[in-house]
Amino acid sequence: MKVALITGITGQDGSYLAELLLEKGYMVHGIKRRSSLFNTDRIDHLYQDPHDPNQRLKLHYGDLTDSMNLTRIIQETQPDEIYNLGAMSHVKVSFDSPEYVGNVDGLGTLRILEAVRLLGLEKKTRIYQASTSELYGGLPENKNERGFYDETCPFYPRSPYGVAKIYGFWITKNYREAYDMYACNGILFNHESPRRGETFVTRKITRAVAKIALGLQDKIYLGNLEAQRDWGHAKDYVRMMWMILQAEKAQDWVIATGVTTTVRDFVRMAFLEVGIELEFKGEGVDEKAYVTACNNKDYQVEIGKEVLSVDPSYFRPTEVDLLLGDPTKAKEQLGWVPEYDLKGLVKDMMEGDIKLMKRDVDLLKAGHEILKQVE
Ligand code: NAP
Ligand code: GDD
Predict the structure, then answer these.
(1) Where is the NAD(P)-binding domain (predicted)?
(2) Ligand nearest to the CA of residue 324, numbered in listed order
(3) How many domains does the chain have?
């Protein structure tokens, strides 16, 4: 049985990847951080009985800042494949904790590579490093001649997160070249899902739209509406992570959809999923969105209602204005075919958040009923 070790298993990608590897018959080990609260919501459905000897998912306490702990886990688990997905992954937050991000996202990668090397596993263990489109920094002059970012384009990171991840990128490449290790970078463009963290822009939008549609929230505040991202579905992207480690030769790969969309248009699409049409008025920090039509009888909001404003506190000290990736190499050489387009992604996320918010409403109603009976 193949053995995989996933750092960041409790995150969006880690949870989908664990699901995929279990389906493929792997023994999956995951590293989770010690927390005073439960932090395994995204993988609880995979982890039913930790006492069952046939359970193929095992969690280990650990942290990417702790090399002794990482070395011990790798020694105990002897993985065929390591997926290094653990990171402080929020770009805006990285401006507040630059040193921590350097330690986790940059040096954490080195700790994994060096542990594998010191344990003499460099010929056994294949390593996937979660690199990112943030490395490109969105500089227009660095795109290829077709206007996309691909594996040949230069990097120019624009945040402490991007700078830490560039260390992770190069140290992975260096260990591949220096020690002939099978270590690859997946340069993944933004990917989202119903399991996306609540403070990333897509999930912040779909949660707020669901609440507004159900009358639980008045409006949403966002930052830069002009930013453009190449958004795919996390389920498609974790499949690609696995495919990258099955390739004959260790290489670096760009994974993207090849379509870019503004934050403003994502908002429009999310509202349209519940039949609400918007008009945007004003510019810059004064831009607002108003409801112009409600075409779904279940989601009726007052026509003319202001549902979006800009809050400059969400602006970043340096911004990545536009990301657009060219996944040709991955498609041609690995045969990657994504199942979701942007519309499918928005639909999946909106369905997830409507269901979640309705459940909250039902719980609230049930609570009121119980109170009434007690009174
Ligand atoms: P995520 O949901 O934020 O998950 C990050 C994971 O890393 C969580 O399990 C988190 O644990 C863990 N983690 C954080 N700090 C850690 C530490 N010090 N030691 C060990 N684990 C730690 O991120 P994601 O969207 O799944 O992304 C997965 C990876 O791909 C990240 O490295 C990210 O930077 C990279 N990436 C993501 C995208 C994207 O669009 N999603 C694109 C390109 C690259 P807790 O649950 O305890 O917080
Ligand atoms: N988070 C957030 N919140 N972003 C906002 C908001 C807001 O209220 N309003 C506008 N934005 C803009 C940001 O300024 C950025 O330009 C864009 O929306 C996307 O922001 P995020 O969803 O936070 O993602 P990101 O692109 O910065 O980073 C994500 O993708 C990277 C790959 O390109 C993260 O998943 C990174 O870990 C990943 O490497």
Answers:
(1) 5-349
(2) 2
(3) 1
